[in-house]
Amino acid sequence: MKMLASLLLSTLAVTTPALAADPTARPDQLAFREIYKELVETNTTLSSGSCTLAAERMATRLRAAGIPESQLTLFAIPEKPKEGGLVAVYPGTSKTAKPILLIAHIDVVEAKREDWERDPFIMVEENGYFYGRGTADIKSQAAVWVDTLIRFQQGGYKPKRTVKMALTCGEETNGAFNGIEWLAANKRDLIDAEFALNEGGGGDSDGKGKVIGQSVQVGEKTFANFRLETRNPGGHSSAPVPDNAIYQLARAVTKIEEHRFPAEMTDTTRRYFAEAGALRADATGAAMVALAKNLADKDAEAIVNKDPFLHSNLRTTCVATLLDGGHAANALPQRAGANINCRIFPGHSIESIRDELARVIGDPGVTITQLPPKRPAPPAPPLDPKIIGPMEKLVAKYWPGLKVIPSMANGYTDATFLGAIGIPTYGIPGMWWDPDGNGAHGLNERMEVKSVYVGRDYMFDLVKAYAD
Which residues contact 94 (CB under 8 A, 6 or more apart)? Predict the structure, then answer.
């Protein structure tokens, strides 16, 4: 009976009602849904997809809306023909107001059909959610940006500021061709802007449709991978010697595990700890507020450190992620290695963290090599009222009673490359996420339909507020 029930559920999941659009959706929302659907259903994984195709399809939609070819730039490099992107420029009327830049990556994390309940590359609307790879991370935002320019063109809108859009590949895969990095290095004038709007912010929900918070991402950590390696002459395993590459490496890794980088705060994280902590009715919230007032409060830090996210949000972290060693089961190891992944707090160079690891390990026999690619480490963008203010005003309109809380990401986004060339980049409020992360990077990725539609309205109004 259980197997039969599963088969019936599988059948129901692919019938027309599950795929049908919400009958209460407005005509403009349904038009947007088609853009979103086309993006999700264009496979843009590194292994078998094509960002270039997705970019071309979005360019086709912009042309159909009447945006001239001269305002569209499709790009790719010969070595990576399927990892291209699109820049669109919607001109403003002012000769002095600097442009704003809307960015979104269109590549997605790998997804295997046999692991998913639904085909990851067919967008399904079911039970109040859109399902599919990229629905959450971050083709929803990319679709909103395309839709925004189409609505501008069709409505004859004449902004003061020029509005630029860049849809790019490479954010999800370290070492892949990164479109924003390439544009920053080769087409700076094309994307130059006073500031950029990006992923990373957004809302939190209670998992039942109620939005309980909205945040703006202001700054993020830099990441770096270091290779630890030990080498020895080796020999026969029947005659062990004190110098063993695996043991030597293990001691080094253990020292890194035991090392805690000191707590630090930026203006953004201090405000985040104060305001987010004040919204929590628990000991952790009280400790967050106390720590924002006094970073030397060790009792408060001890409480906060129990939360993995908050612990990491306070400092640089380095963790072992890969191990290898030895060459035969009956031989002493000649070589052993480990990958140490570091997420570096703003204000510290990759080189300084490498030196800190060397000091902590205290063994010159352990080599430490920074692995490519080397990411830039730009300073956090300012909490500029001209930029944060419109976000706050619109959040108060859409979600009365909620504040916009600035936050810093423990990970990194394409903002890294823009910050490095002097374009401050902010992850905006808008669409909200469930407590479980909506399956981003995992199975059965989804976004609540209402989140996407209301977030789209918020984001459209926000772009117009800046453009005017």
Answer: 160, 161
Question: Average pLDDT of the chain?
Answer: 94
Interval 13-59: pLDDT, tens: 333 334 567 888 999 999 999 999 999 999 999 999 999 999 999 99
Alpha helices for 347-429 (secondary structure H): 350-361, 385-398, 415-420
| DSSP helix/strand/coil, 428 | coil
Tens of pLDDT along 219-228? 999 999 999 9
Where does the chain hold its CATH 3.40.630.10 domain(s)? 13-220+379-467
Q: Specify the CATH number of the domain 222-370.
A: 3.30.70.360
* 440-466 b/e (C-beta count within 10 Å ≥ 16 → b): beeebbbbbbbbbbbbbbbbbebbbeb
Q: Answer for the pair 252, 325: CB distance below 8 angstroms, yes or no.
A: no
Helix (H) or strand (E) holding 255: helix 245-258
- The percentage of residues in the chain with a pLDDT greater than 70, rounded to a whole number, is 96
As annotated, the residues of the chain forming the CATH 3.30.70.360 domain(s) are 222-370
Digit-coded pLDDT (tens) for 391-417: 999 999 999 999 999 999 998 899 999
β-pair partners for 204: 213, 433
Query: Would you say 142 and 104 are in contact if contact means Cβ atoms under 8 Å apart?
Result: yes
* 3-state DSSP assignment of residue 167: strand
C-alpha distances in angstroms, 131 versus 13, 19, 134, 204? 11, 10, 9, 19
Choose between 219 and 2: higher pLDDT.
219
CA distance 366 to 227: 10
CATH T-level assignment (fold) for domain 13-220+379-467: Aminopeptidase (3.40.630)
